[in-house]
Specification:
With 332 residues, the chain is mostly helical. The protein has 13 helices and two strands, in the order αββαααααααααααα. It has a two-stranded antiparallel sheet with strand order 1-2. The chain starts with a helix and ends in an 8-residue tail after the last helix.
Length: 332
Protein backbone atom coordinates (compact mmCIF):
# COMPACT_ATOMS: atom_id res chain seq x y z
CA UNK A 1 0.00 0.00 0.00
CA UNK A 2 2.82 2.35 0.95
CA UNK A 3 4.63 1.58 -2.30
CA UNK A 4 1.44 2.28 -4.22
CA UNK A 5 1.01 5.67 -2.54
CA UNK A 6 4.67 6.52 -3.19
CA UNK A 7 4.30 5.50 -6.81
CA UNK A 8 1.17 7.62 -7.16
CA UNK A 9 3.02 10.60 -5.68
CA UNK A 10 5.94 10.10 -8.05
CA UNK A 11 3.57 9.96 -10.99
CA UNK A 12 1.90 13.17 -9.82
CA UNK A 13 5.27 14.94 -9.71
CA UNK A 14 6.37 13.55 -13.03
CA UNK A 15 3.10 14.67 -14.56
CA UNK A 16 3.89 18.30 -13.71
CA UNK A 17 7.59 18.21 -14.64
CA UNK A 18 8.73 19.47 -18.01
CA UNK A 19 11.47 16.95 -18.87
CA UNK A 20 14.54 16.87 -21.14
CA UNK A 21 15.70 13.30 -21.71
CA UNK A 22 14.03 12.28 -18.48
CA UNK A 23 15.57 15.19 -16.48
CA UNK A 24 13.75 18.09 -14.82
CA UNK A 25 14.08 20.93 -17.35
CA UNK A 26 13.70 23.82 -14.89
CA UNK A 27 16.26 22.20 -12.61
CA UNK A 28 18.78 22.13 -15.46
CA UNK A 29 18.04 25.75 -16.35
CA UNK A 30 18.35 26.79 -12.70
CA UNK A 31 21.71 25.03 -12.45
CA UNK A 32 22.89 26.81 -15.61
CA UNK A 33 21.71 30.23 -14.36
CA UNK A 34 23.40 29.87 -10.95
CA UNK A 35 26.57 28.50 -12.55
CA UNK A 36 26.60 31.54 -14.86
CA UNK A 37 26.33 33.81 -11.80
CA UNK A 38 29.29 31.97 -10.22
CA UNK A 39 31.42 32.25 -13.37
CA UNK A 40 30.63 35.95 -13.80
CA UNK A 41 31.54 36.59 -10.16
CA UNK A 42 34.85 34.77 -10.18
CA UNK A 43 35.81 35.23 -13.84
CA UNK A 44 35.60 39.02 -14.20
CA UNK A 45 37.49 41.51 -12.01
CA UNK A 46 35.68 44.03 -9.82
CA UNK A 47 35.83 47.69 -10.82
CA UNK A 48 36.09 48.49 -7.10
CA UNK A 49 36.91 45.81 -4.48
CA UNK A 50 33.92 44.62 -2.44
CA UNK A 51 35.24 41.50 -0.70
CA UNK A 52 33.87 37.94 -0.35
CA UNK A 53 34.11 37.30 -4.11
CA UNK A 54 35.31 33.71 -3.77
CA UNK A 55 32.81 32.89 -1.03
CA UNK A 56 29.89 34.12 -3.13
CA UNK A 57 31.15 32.24 -6.19
CA UNK A 58 31.41 29.01 -4.17
CA UNK A 59 27.90 29.47 -2.77
CA UNK A 60 26.31 30.06 -6.19
CA UNK A 61 28.29 27.16 -7.67
CA UNK A 62 27.07 24.97 -4.80
CA UNK A 63 23.45 25.93 -5.51
CA UNK A 64 24.03 25.08 -9.19
CA UNK A 65 25.37 21.64 -8.22
CA UNK A 66 22.37 21.03 -5.94
CA UNK A 67 19.86 21.80 -8.70
CA UNK A 68 21.82 19.72 -11.19
CA UNK A 69 21.38 16.80 -8.80
CA UNK A 70 17.73 17.64 -8.19
CA UNK A 71 17.05 17.59 -11.92
CA UNK A 72 17.72 13.85 -11.77
CA UNK A 73 15.94 12.90 -8.51
CA UNK A 74 13.15 15.47 -8.15
CA UNK A 75 10.46 13.00 -9.21
CA UNK A 76 11.42 10.76 -6.27
CA UNK A 77 11.00 13.45 -3.56
CA UNK A 78 7.21 13.32 -3.20
CA UNK A 79 5.69 16.47 -1.71
CA UNK A 80 9.09 18.19 -1.49
CA UNK A 81 9.55 17.52 -5.19
CA UNK A 82 6.22 19.16 -5.99
CA UNK A 83 7.27 22.27 -4.07
CA UNK A 84 10.60 22.41 -5.93
CA UNK A 85 8.87 22.03 -9.30
CA UNK A 86 6.43 24.79 -8.39
CA UNK A 87 9.19 27.25 -7.49
CA UNK A 88 11.58 26.13 -10.26
CA UNK A 89 10.94 29.17 -12.54
CA UNK A 90 11.62 31.48 -9.60
CA UNK A 91 14.99 29.80 -8.98
CA UNK A 92 15.92 30.33 -12.64
CA UNK A 93 14.99 34.01 -12.51
CA UNK A 94 16.95 34.56 -9.28
CA UNK A 95 20.06 32.98 -10.82
CA UNK A 96 19.79 35.19 -13.92
CA UNK A 97 19.12 38.22 -11.73
CA UNK A 98 22.28 37.57 -9.68
CA UNK A 99 24.40 37.34 -12.84
CA UNK A 100 22.94 40.59 -14.26
CA UNK A 101 23.30 42.26 -10.85
CA UNK A 102 26.99 41.33 -10.73
CA UNK A 103 27.62 42.62 -14.26
CA UNK A 104 25.89 45.99 -13.78
CA UNK A 105 27.48 46.77 -10.41
CA UNK A 106 30.82 45.17 -9.54
CA UNK A 107 32.02 44.09 -13.00
CA UNK A 108 31.12 47.00 -15.35
CA UNK A 109 30.36 49.73 -12.80
CA UNK A 110 27.22 50.96 -14.56
CA UNK A 111 25.58 51.25 -11.13
CA UNK A 112 28.49 52.73 -9.17
CA UNK A 113 29.73 52.38 -5.62
CA UNK A 114 28.66 53.41 -2.96
CA UNK A 115 25.06 53.85 -4.11
CA UNK A 116 24.69 50.30 -5.42
CA UNK A 117 26.18 47.09 -4.07
CA UNK A 118 26.72 43.76 -5.87
CA UNK A 119 25.45 40.52 -4.27
CA UNK A 120 28.89 39.62 -2.96
CA UNK A 121 29.08 43.12 -1.42
CA UNK A 122 25.98 42.29 0.65
CA UNK A 123 27.49 38.93 1.55
CA UNK A 124 30.65 40.71 2.68
CA UNK A 125 28.54 42.85 5.05
CA UNK A 126 27.10 39.70 6.67
CA UNK A 127 30.60 38.25 6.96
CA UNK A 128 32.32 41.30 8.42
CA UNK A 129 29.47 42.84 10.44
CA UNK A 130 27.40 39.75 11.22
CA UNK A 131 27.81 39.94 15.00
CA UNK A 132 26.42 43.46 15.21
CA UNK A 133 23.60 42.62 12.81
CA UNK A 134 22.60 39.68 15.01
CA UNK A 135 22.40 41.98 18.03
CA UNK A 136 20.32 44.44 15.99
CA UNK A 137 17.96 41.66 14.89
CA UNK A 138 17.43 40.64 18.52
CA UNK A 139 16.72 44.22 19.58
CA UNK A 140 14.37 44.79 16.66
CA UNK A 141 12.40 41.60 17.28
CA UNK A 142 12.01 42.47 20.98
CA UNK A 143 11.05 46.03 20.19
CA UNK A 144 8.63 45.04 17.43
CA UNK A 145 7.04 42.25 19.51
CA UNK A 146 6.35 44.59 22.44
CA UNK A 147 4.82 47.26 20.23
CA UNK A 148 2.89 44.96 17.92
CA UNK A 149 1.45 42.69 20.62
CA UNK A 150 0.42 45.53 22.91
CA UNK A 151 -1.15 47.34 19.94
CA UNK A 152 -3.19 44.41 18.68
CA UNK A 153 -4.38 43.45 22.20
CA UNK A 154 -5.69 46.96 22.84
CA UNK A 155 -7.01 47.28 19.28
CA UNK A 156 -8.79 43.95 19.52
CA UNK A 157 -10.49 44.88 22.81
CA UNK A 158 -11.51 48.29 21.49
CA UNK A 159 -12.79 46.74 18.25
CA UNK A 160 -14.99 44.21 20.06
CA UNK A 161 -16.43 46.97 22.24
CA UNK A 162 -17.07 49.20 19.23
CA UNK A 163 -18.78 46.44 17.29
CA UNK A 164 -20.88 45.19 20.20
CA UNK A 165 -21.93 48.29 22.13
CA UNK A 166 -23.88 51.01 20.36
CA UNK A 167 -23.12 53.47 23.16
CA UNK A 168 -19.39 52.78 23.00
CA UNK A 169 -19.53 53.00 19.22
CA UNK A 170 -21.38 56.35 19.42
CA UNK A 171 -18.50 57.94 21.34
CA UNK A 172 -15.57 55.86 20.18
CA UNK A 173 -16.03 55.43 16.43
CA UNK A 174 -15.80 59.18 15.56
CA UNK A 175 -12.57 59.41 17.55
CA UNK A 176 -11.17 56.34 15.80
CA UNK A 177 -12.10 57.74 12.39
CA UNK A 178 -10.40 61.00 13.37
CA UNK A 179 -7.19 59.41 14.66
CA UNK A 180 -6.96 56.56 12.16
CA UNK A 181 -5.93 58.51 9.04
CA UNK A 182 -3.15 60.37 10.90
CA UNK A 183 0.24 58.62 10.42
CA UNK A 184 1.54 57.12 13.64
CA UNK A 185 4.83 58.97 13.26
CA UNK A 186 2.97 62.31 13.36
CA UNK A 187 2.31 61.70 17.08
CA UNK A 188 6.03 61.73 17.97
CA UNK A 189 5.95 65.20 19.63
CA UNK A 190 3.08 64.09 21.92
CA UNK A 191 4.77 60.82 22.82
CA UNK A 192 7.80 62.66 24.20
CA UNK A 193 5.48 64.43 26.66
CA UNK A 194 3.43 61.42 27.76
CA UNK A 195 6.20 58.80 27.90
CA UNK A 196 9.20 59.25 30.22
CA UNK A 197 11.65 57.29 28.02
CA UNK A 198 12.34 57.21 24.32
CA UNK A 199 11.95 53.42 24.44
CA UNK A 200 8.36 53.78 25.72
CA UNK A 201 7.64 56.42 23.09
CA UNK A 202 8.95 54.13 20.34
CA UNK A 203 6.83 51.23 21.59
CA UNK A 204 3.78 53.48 21.54
CA UNK A 205 4.40 54.49 17.92
CA UNK A 206 4.53 50.84 16.78
CA UNK A 207 1.53 49.94 18.98
CA UNK A 208 -0.51 52.79 17.54
CA UNK A 209 0.29 51.78 13.97
CA UNK A 210 -0.69 48.17 14.77
CA UNK A 211 -3.75 48.77 16.92
CA UNK A 212 -5.84 51.05 14.71
CA UNK A 213 -6.36 48.66 11.75
CA UNK A 214 -7.09 45.80 14.15
CA UNK A 215 -9.66 47.92 16.01
CA UNK A 216 -11.41 49.04 12.82
CA UNK A 217 -11.54 45.60 11.20
CA UNK A 218 -12.59 43.87 14.45
CA UNK A 219 -15.40 46.38 14.94
CA UNK A 220 -16.49 45.82 11.35
CA UNK A 221 -16.45 42.04 11.84
CA UNK A 222 -18.44 42.07 15.07
CA UNK A 223 -20.91 44.58 13.64
CA UNK A 224 -21.52 42.52 10.51
CA UNK A 225 -22.54 39.32 12.32
CA UNK A 226 -26.02 38.20 11.32
CA UNK A 227 -28.41 39.37 14.09
CA UNK A 228 -30.39 36.15 13.71
CA UNK A 229 -27.51 34.31 15.42
CA UNK A 230 -27.91 36.52 18.48
CA UNK A 231 -31.68 36.05 18.51
CA UNK A 232 -31.33 32.28 18.39
CA UNK A 233 -28.77 32.42 21.21
CA UNK A 234 -30.98 34.58 23.41
CA UNK A 235 -33.95 32.26 22.82
CA UNK A 236 -31.76 29.37 24.02
CA UNK A 237 -30.85 31.29 27.16
CA UNK A 238 -27.46 32.79 26.27
CA UNK A 239 -26.45 36.02 28.00
CA UNK A 240 -24.45 38.87 26.46
CA UNK A 241 -21.12 37.56 27.70
CA UNK A 242 -21.75 34.16 26.11
CA UNK A 243 -22.89 35.74 22.81
CA UNK A 244 -19.73 37.86 22.61
CA UNK A 245 -17.37 34.96 23.36
CA UNK A 246 -19.11 32.20 21.37
CA UNK A 247 -20.88 34.03 18.53
CA UNK A 248 -19.56 37.54 17.86
CA UNK A 249 -15.82 36.93 18.25
CA UNK A 250 -15.60 33.65 16.26
CA UNK A 251 -17.72 35.10 13.45
CA UNK A 252 -15.51 38.21 13.32
CA UNK A 253 -12.20 36.30 13.14
CA UNK A 254 -11.79 36.61 9.32
CA UNK A 255 -12.01 40.40 9.67
CA UNK A 256 -9.64 40.29 12.65
CA UNK A 257 -6.99 38.49 10.60
CA UNK A 258 -7.30 41.03 7.80
CA UNK A 259 -6.63 43.69 10.42
CA UNK A 260 -3.64 41.71 11.73
CA UNK A 261 -2.08 41.50 8.28
CA UNK A 262 -2.53 45.25 7.80
CA UNK A 263 -1.14 45.89 11.29
CA UNK A 264 1.92 43.79 10.50
CA UNK A 265 2.78 45.84 7.43
CA UNK A 266 2.14 49.15 9.19
CA UNK A 267 4.26 48.15 12.19
CA UNK A 268 7.26 47.36 9.98
CA UNK A 269 6.73 50.58 8.05
CA UNK A 270 7.11 52.71 11.21
CA UNK A 271 9.79 50.51 12.77
CA UNK A 272 12.70 52.40 11.21
CA UNK A 273 11.33 55.77 12.34
CA UNK A 274 10.50 54.49 15.83
CA UNK A 275 14.03 53.15 16.30
CA UNK A 276 15.39 56.61 15.57
CA UNK A 277 14.04 57.83 18.92
CA UNK A 278 17.15 57.22 20.98
CA UNK A 279 17.63 53.51 20.25
CA UNK A 280 21.15 52.12 20.70
CA UNK A 281 20.63 49.01 18.56
CA UNK A 282 18.09 47.64 16.11
CA UNK A 283 17.83 47.31 12.35
CA UNK A 284 16.19 50.74 12.04
CA UNK A 285 19.00 52.29 14.07
CA UNK A 286 21.54 50.36 11.96
CA UNK A 287 20.03 51.70 8.72
CA UNK A 288 20.12 55.27 9.99
CA UNK A 289 23.67 54.89 11.30
CA UNK A 290 25.03 53.42 8.05
CA UNK A 291 23.16 55.96 5.91
CA UNK A 292 24.94 58.76 7.76
CA UNK A 293 28.30 57.24 6.77
CA UNK A 294 27.24 56.33 3.20
CA UNK A 295 27.42 52.61 4.01
CA UNK A 296 24.72 51.77 1.52
CA UNK A 297 25.77 48.12 1.19
CA UNK A 298 25.11 47.76 4.92
CA UNK A 299 21.77 49.53 4.46
CA UNK A 300 20.72 47.11 1.73
CA UNK A 301 21.85 44.17 3.84
CA UNK A 302 19.71 45.35 6.77
CA UNK A 303 16.72 46.02 4.49
CA UNK A 304 17.01 42.49 3.12
CA UNK A 305 16.92 41.10 6.68
CA UNK A 306 13.86 43.19 7.52
CA UNK A 307 12.09 41.98 4.38
CA UNK A 308 12.86 38.35 5.24
CA UNK A 309 11.68 38.84 8.85
CA UNK A 310 8.43 40.42 7.70
CA UNK A 311 7.85 37.69 5.09
CA UNK A 312 8.52 34.98 7.70
CA UNK A 313 6.11 36.50 10.22
CA UNK A 314 3.45 36.86 7.53
CA UNK A 315 3.89 33.21 6.62
CA UNK A 316 3.54 32.27 10.30
CA UNK A 317 0.40 34.36 10.56
CA UNK A 318 -1.07 32.56 7.55
CA UNK A 319 -0.43 29.22 9.25
CA UNK A 320 -2.12 30.41 12.46
CA UNK A 321 -5.08 31.75 10.49
CA UNK A 322 -5.54 28.52 8.55
CA UNK A 323 -5.50 26.50 11.78
CA UNK A 324 -7.91 28.77 13.66
CA UNK A 325 -10.35 29.20 10.79
CA UNK A 326 -10.38 25.64 9.49
CA UNK A 327 -13.93 25.34 10.87
CA UNK A 328 -15.05 27.64 8.02
CA UNK A 329 -14.27 25.10 5.33
CA UNK A 330 -17.56 24.11 3.78
CA UNK A 331 -19.44 26.52 6.05
CA UNK A 332 -18.74 29.89 4.39
Amino acid sequence: MTDAIQAAGDEAVVGHVAAVNGLWRDGLLAAAAWLAAALVTIGLPDVVPWGSVSLFAWITAGVAAIFLTLSVIVHRLGRAGEVLVHYGPWVIVVGIWLAVWELTTAKFGWLPKPFFSPPHGLLNVYVTDGARLLICIGYTLRFWALGFLSGIVVGYGVGVALGWSRRFSYWGMPLLKLIGPVPATAWIPCTFYFFPTTFGASIFIVALASGIPVAILTASGVGSVNRAYYDVGRILGADSRYLIRRVAIPAAMPHVFVGLFMALYYSFAVLVVAEMLGAKYGLGWYIQFQTAYSGYANVYAALLIMALLCAGIIRLLFVVRDRLLNWQEGFI
